[in-house]
Amino acid sequence: MPAGTRAQHPGPMKQLAHIAYPMLTAAGLLLLVAAPFEVLTEIDDRPYSQQALASTYHVDSLLGLVSTLCLFLGVAAVAGRTGPGGRMISGPACVTVLLGLMGAAFLQAVSVFLVPSLATSAPAVLDAPPSGWHAAGVIVSLALWVVGIVWLSVSAFRSRVFPRIAAVVLGVGGAATFFGPISGFLMGIGLLWIGIAGIRLKQGGA
Fold first, then answer.
1. Cβ atoms of residues 148 and 177 within 8 Å
2. Cβ(42)–Cβ(181) below 8 Å
3. Predicted TM-score of the model (pTM)
């Protein structure tokens, strides 16, 4: 190596950018795979403590956790991207989504690692309605998530960072969070579309 020169290493954000579309693709695929298990959990009318012992609940929770982590990495990696017209995707929208996803990841981790043991050791705790800090945390997390994903979808639509129809599907899916499995299905389609389109665009420009 010539004197006075140093090897150039890409910064962490540039390295993260390479995984944006693969992570969004993985998140979309996992949400679609989880959709049937979410439906089965949704129509199960047994107490929550009994639902938590079912294999469908375990699969749904695990897929939800992994998809949330993939989506977190994907959104973090697309922050600051610009569309064909030079318009940048909203940074505050990305931050809002990421905050909501942090809360969602915590709740999913609780469902995967803590809830099954509580179902056998303290079922009354699970069957009691959320209250206090638990209820507040769930409400804040969901509010950040819904506001953030709709805001991000609108920003992506306007900047054309994502395919516009896919951004609409993603936004509608996020807005439908309180309507059960249809939300995950729509978001899965939107994210899979966005991810595959981004990968193809990158391969075509290589």
1. no
2. yes
3. 0.87
The SS3 of residue 131 is: coil
Higher pLDDT, 134 or 38: 38
- Which residues lie below 8 Å from residue 82, measured CB to CB, with a gap of 6+? 88, 89, 159, 161
* pLDDT of the residue at 203: 77
Tokens of 25: 């693709």
Which range, 41-50, 95-104, 137-146, has the best average confidence (pLDDT)?
95-104
Q: Is residue 37 part of a domain?
A: yes
- Domain membership of residue 206 (yes or no) is no
Residue 42: inside a domain: yes
Task: Answer yes or no: are the C-beta atoms of 95 and 80 closer than 8 Å.
Answer: no
What's residue 12's pLDDT?
54
DSSP 8-state secondary structure symbol assigned to residue 130: P
Distance between CA atoms of 138 and 206, rounded to whole angstroms?
43
- Contact by Cβ (8 Å): 21, 199: yes
Range of the domain at 122: 13-201
Beta strands in 6-152 (DSSP E): none
The answer to whether residue 101 sits within a structural domain is yes
Which pLDDT tens digit goes with each residue over 19-34? 999 999 999 999 999 9
| Total domains, the chain | 1
